[in-house]
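[stage:ingest] chain + small molecule ((2R)-2,3-dihydroxypropanoic acid)
[stage:ingest] validated
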Amino acid sequence: MKAAAKLMKVFITRRIPQEGMKILAAAEGCEVSQWDSDEPVPRSELLKGVQGAHGLLCLLSDKIDQEVLDAAGPNLKVISTMSVGFDHLVLSEIKKRGIRVGYTPDVLTDATAELTVALLLATSRRLPEGVEEVKSGGWSSWKPLWLCGYGLSGSTVGIIGLGRIGMAIAQRLLPFGVKRLLYSGRTAKSYAAEVNGEFVPLDTLTSESDFIVVSCSLTPETQGLCDKAFFSKMKKNAIFINSSRGAVVNQEDLYDALSSGQIAAAGLDVTTPEPLPTNHPLLTLKNCVVLPHIGSATYSTRGVMSALAAQNLLGGLQGSDMPSELTL
Ligand code: NDP
Ligand code: DGY
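[stage:predict] done
[stage:export] tokens:
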């Protein structure tokens, strides 16, 4: 007689695109429970839902710390996050417990780079202000200096963190006529030659760039990297763009830099906290464009992320290869 496959309990912290759900539904021996909502799972429900789970599929808005791991208990073999960022996972504790981690690199690189370029152009060419003026009747005539901004042609662009997404941003910006492409990070990258990237100290990047794009991961080293000292080194007509994580930026210092004219403008796809409260000072500034963390938000990208997160989860549950396993 064939032994029945051991039932694996899986908890999913949110509604996710059907691509991933179909994969899990077709998997043998998988008992799936889910926080069946488009809104984040309340902490108490997360702690309840994860109890006894062998697998956890989570999102970047779920803090997976010691408390969650304790609530899950010793069954937990795999955590699969539907994101490339993993700063919401307490990796030291996860590693100590021998739990494997899956994430979703590469599949969202193009979408995120595209959005970052859109945000850069929207900020530097003042698109939200222009749209608002059209709607509110502020458009009285064509005026020589009205709603002027800054162009990329002939400019110097500085990328903080020339990883997968940073590189894809550089590739998309170069055809606009960018003259110099600077980047900073922990180590020089051989592939930077493809975009004529110059590896420079952060101070050089900050003081010489007309556009600064932050695309690094959030680590203890990058937390608060863009602070008062950083903004004070930027050119007065420079534009600051962040599509990595909000915590890389000290938002009070950014507000001061923007409101005092220390820098020209900022575009943020990520903030602290998320969502940014509607009464936040940054939202009162015309020279600050804030988007609601939509870097990877294309239908197809989110579908592929969901499928990859499900495949990672199954690999971890079955003790086999995961398509994208994070090396701990
Ligand atoms: P990668 O790991 O490919 O790139 C991360 C880069 O960060 C690496 O090049 C790394 O450089 C750099 N980095 C690490 N430490 C520092 C440092 N101290 N100073 C400067 N650079 C540093 O990841 P991805 O490109 O795939 O993703 C990057 C981040 O983008 C994710 O971690 C996530 O937070 C964010 N993201 C945001 C999205 C959005 O919707 N807005 C969508 C997707 C991702 P080195 O190798 O030298 O350490
Ligand atoms: C990530 O994957 O880390 C993004 O922030 C959302 O796609």
